[in-house]
Design goal:
Layout lengths: L1 E8 L5 H17 L3 E8 L6 E8 L2 H8 L3 H10 L8 E5 L3
Helix pairs in contact: 1-3
Length: about 100
């Protein structure tokens, strides 16, 4: 099991729309092959900064299967317009 951590900066003033887009996209993650959970966290100190934490069975479930799917394109359609910059994504595992 791995976790994808995506740091997402949104354009100030679009936070509510971004959060609505993520809520609308929740079923996309729920049905994604190998996805076990997806949670959006918002920074207290910097309210335009979020971290999307997604639990995947393997890195390939995220990088190959999900990113290569039409659902990934739909995810980007729902939230991409709010990004201030491309998300910073890394994969981590518990030690």
């Amino acid at each position: 099991m791995i976790r994808e951590i995506a740091q997402i900066e949104v354009r100030p003033g679009t936070e509510q729309e971004f959060e609505k887009g993520v809520a609308e996209a929740k079923p996309i993650f729920d049905r994604a092959d190998g996805c076990q959970a997806a949670v959006l966290w918002r920074s207290i100190e910097n309210p335009a900064r979020y971290r999307l934490v997604v639990t995947w069975e393997t890195v390939e479930h995220h990088t190959v299967k999900f990113r290569g799917s039409p659902d990934f394109q739909r995810w980007r359609e729902l939230v991409g317009e709010y990004f201030a910059a491309p998300p910073e994504v890394e994969h981590v595992y518990a030690v």
